[in-house]
Amino acid sequence: MATDPLQKQKPKRKHLAPAHLVAFDQVVKRYGDHVVLDHLDLTVERGRHVTLIGPSGSGKTTILRLLMTLEQVNEGTILVDGVPLTHMTTANGRVRPADEKHRREIRKKIGMVFQQFNLFPNMSVLRNITEAPVSVLGMDRDEAEERARELLDLVGLRDKADAHPTRLSGGQQQRVAIARALAMRPEILLLDEVTSALDPELVAGVLDVLRDIARSTDITLLCVTHEMSFARDISERVMMFDSGRVIESGPPEQIFGAPEQERTREFLSAVL
Ligand SMILES: Nc1ncnc2c1ncn2[C@@H]1O[C@H](COP(=O)(O)OP(=O)(O)OP(=O)(O)O)[C@@H](O)[C@H]1O
Ligand SMILES: [Mg+2]
Fold this sequence. Notes:
This protein is 36% helix and 25% strand. It has 272 residues and is an alpha/beta fold. The strands form three sheets. It has a six-stranded mixed sheet, sandwiched between helices. Helix 4 runs parallel beside helix 6 (170-182). It starts with a helix and ends with a helix.
């Protein structure tokens, strides 16, 4: 029998993209004697919106900082898109500790927005957004500006392109920080309590923007938040983190509606 011509035409993919964009495998992180992450296993599937909740000081920010290579693990492995953060394979097949170039390549896939927006105060809003795409990705300045204006539209700040960050409200600055992170076209966006430094009346605007991003883009989100209602309606999966491990994980209806762990119930009754 003749072979199926369609079969033959199928492009051969060099490698299948791994289902998990992020995978922590038995990760240990210590500060002195203090074990912050205790053989942590954690995965984030591509395209998903995952929220991490848990008590203060339990290590949520540490997880994001490890992903950004701002910290190093003591034990275990972190894979981003199937590639280890800590190791690289050289041309002759040797496995070596990752160098800065390797880490930089992986970091390109990751965007992060912090509680403190950290905008460049001496640059206009537009320049804040175009700076890294031009200097790091080598993007053409006109193209970067066009893209920045689209992103300002997305975050509802088109008319603020020429403003200086110090003239913006906290909520507006945080929306610029979100646009700036997206300008690098990350595959995953890490959000660390992005509304907790804001006045209460500014929180809703920022959360609306994030909901919009979750709905209208295919970007993967890993959020740390104390806003439980936001966690509930943005995420497909909520992970409860305590004592260095994910103790429970599931859809928001389950975690908020019928948590299995006593520790989760305790935590939720304190924050809700
Ligand atoms: N550079 C550091 N040196 C020593 N200890 C640190 C350092 N960074 C974090 N820690 C400790 O690690 C633990 C986890 O901190 P982390 O900031 O990850 O917590 P968190 O869950 O994000 O808390 P929060 O909800 O308050 O933001 C804390 O006990 C903190 O004191
Ligand atoms: Mg934190």
